[in-house]
């Protein structure tokens, strides 16, 4: 009889009919000489498949290896009481074919996956490591999280912008710029899309992007990548308090959105046992000045004390009002105290800073003075300055490191495991 080709995730709707499923041999168990179990993986899920009698006696069956690709035909049957299988059913195979056989022995993928604890193998063999259960779940959660960010902004009326990654201006300081030769001219890989988002405010209102940002930070830490996904938003006509509320609402809403999806929630619970989505409880808001009582005013908070503080408090913290000299050129001083700026970092337990944001200097002359103070040539920024010339307005925004957010959500030790192929030092 004919067989309908299905994805594993659609199994439940196709029980008791003959189906055809393609996939990778994720697990293999031989029981006696007349029975073989394959757990098949097709990216959409896992399926237990049973091969009996003559189906197990062929040359292909006797030499089958993990990670080989196969086509399996048969009927999907609910598993009997007391037996468990992914999805509650198994495929009773009546015919099957090998699509491509993977090597066994020393070259077997399992050998490589078993050395997952060796970091150098882990990253050189990353393309194979990502086939593992944990890495697969992490990448799937990532996909849902990216969608949740987009849904959050789209439902709040933001437009999505596609800014350039090849630029001629810095945003977050010259020391972390990657430069390259652009047809004979010096150019950079973008550190942040913020400046471009700002230029879109007059035409689209509130805007966001999820784009790559690049930082040449030669520190091999748990939370620095050379290339990372940066979720940034920019909003016109808001106050600093509106900005803080916007960051807090976004994080809560995105977590609630992924938590409401049963498949995603199950993966998060498995990766991060005990994780609880954030409730209505407001995030702690703390001024920099109060947070650094142990350091001296004007010190940047290094990574380890920052994490210590966050882990001790054990809750998200919106840390605000950083001193001007340690922050970016575009951050405005507050009216009450010109030493500090309308700036914010969101710190999460276990990771530390996941968001950086601020109001923006919106007055032309003040911005020019800021360039001068920082020793920056304003010429390449003429388009950014024009924003302050042709109908300027109070505005602000923020950037969230997607990998850091995910490290917090899925309880990963380093941000490297959150990308399929991280570029890292
Ligand atoms: O704090 P940052 O440098 O802020 C900006 O780039 C602003 N222009 C954003 C804005 O206001 N639109 O970076 C923002 C976030 C950080 O909080 C962190 O989560 C992440 O980007 N980030 C990194 N993530 C991974 N690897 C790195 N090297 C990162 N550098 C920053
Ligand atoms: Mg920052």
3D structure, described in words:
The protein has helices at residues 59-62, 109-114, 119-124, 126-129, 133-155, 194-204, 240-259, 262-271, 288-291, 303-313, 364-374, 382-386, 402-410; strands at residues 4-5, 18-31, 35-41, 46-52, 69-78, 89-100, 159-160, 166-167, 179-182, 185-189, 207-214, 227-236, 284-287, 317-320, 343-348, 352-359, 395-401. With 425 residues, it is α+β, with helices and mostly antiparallel strands. It has 2 domains: 4-107, OB fold (Dihydrolipoamide Acetyltransferase, E2P) (Beta Barrel); 126-418, 2-Layer Sandwich (BirA Bifunctional Protein, domain 2). The chain has an 8-stranded mixed β-sheet with strand order 7-11-12-17-16-15-14-13, with helices on both faces. A hairpin with a 3-residue loop joins strand 15 and strand 16 (352-359). Helix 5 (133-155) crosses helix 7 (240-259). The protein binds 4-amino-1,4-dioxobutan-2-aminium adenosine-5'-monophosphate and magnesium ion (MG). 4-amino-1,4-dioxobutan-2-aminium adenosine-5'-monophosphate binds at residues 171-172, 192, 194, 215, 217, 224-225, 228, 230, 232, 353-357, 397-401, 403-404, 415. Magnesium ion is lined by residues 345, 353, 356.
């Amino acid at each position: 009889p004919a067989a309908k080709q299905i994805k594993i995730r659609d199994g439940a709707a196709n029980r008791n009919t003959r189906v055809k499923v393609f996939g990778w041999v994720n697990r293999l168990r031989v029981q006696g000489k007349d029975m073989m179990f394959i757990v098949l993986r097709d990216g959409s899920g896992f399926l237990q498949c049973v091969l009996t009698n003559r189906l197990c006696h062929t040359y292909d069956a006797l030499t089958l290896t993990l990670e080989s690709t196969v086509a399996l035909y048969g009927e999907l049957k609910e598993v009997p009481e007391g037996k468990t299988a992914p999805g509650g059913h198994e495929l009773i195979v009546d015919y099957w074919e090998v699509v491509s056989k993977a090597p066994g022995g020393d070259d077997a993928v399992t050998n490589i996956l078993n050395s997952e604890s060796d970091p150098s193998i882990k990253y050189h063999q990353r393309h194979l490591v990502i086939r593992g259960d944990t890495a697969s779940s992490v990448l799937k959660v990532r996909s849902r999280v990216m969608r949740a960010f987009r849904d959050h902004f789209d439902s709040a009326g933001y437009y999505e912008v596609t800014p350039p990654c090849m630029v001629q201006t810095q945003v977050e300081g010259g020391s972390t710029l990657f430069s390259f030769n652009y047809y004979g001219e010096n150019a950079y890989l973008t550190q942040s899309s913020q400046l471009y988002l700002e230029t879109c405010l007059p035409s689209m209102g509130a805007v966001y992007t999820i784009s790559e940002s690049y930082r040449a930070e030669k520190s091999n830490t748990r939370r620095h990548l050379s290339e990372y996904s940066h979720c940034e938003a920019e909003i016109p006509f808001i106050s600093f308090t509106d900005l803080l509320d916007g960051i807090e609402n976004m994080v809560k809403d995105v977590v609630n959105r992924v938590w409401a999806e049963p498949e995603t929630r199950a993966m998060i619970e498995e990766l991060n046992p005990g994780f609880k989505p954030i409730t209505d409880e407001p995030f702690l808001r703390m001024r920099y000045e109060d947070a650094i009582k142990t350091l001296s005013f004007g010190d940047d908070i290094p990574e380890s004390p920052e994490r210590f503080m966050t882990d001790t408090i054990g809750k998200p913290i919106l840390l605000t009002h950083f001193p001007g000299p340690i922050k970016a050129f575009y951050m405005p001083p507050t009216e009450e105290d010109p030493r500090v700026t309308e700036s914010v970092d969101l710190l999460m337990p276990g990771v530390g800073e996941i968001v950086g944001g601020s109001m923006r200097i919106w007055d032309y002359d003040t911005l020019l003075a800021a360039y001068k103070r920082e020793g920056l040539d304003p010429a390449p920024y003429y388009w950014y300055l024009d924003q302050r010339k042709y109908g300027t307005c109070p505005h602000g925004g923020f950037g969230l490191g997607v990998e850091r957010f995910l490290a917090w959500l899925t309880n990963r030790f380093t941000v490297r495991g959150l990308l399929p192929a991280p570029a890292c030092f």
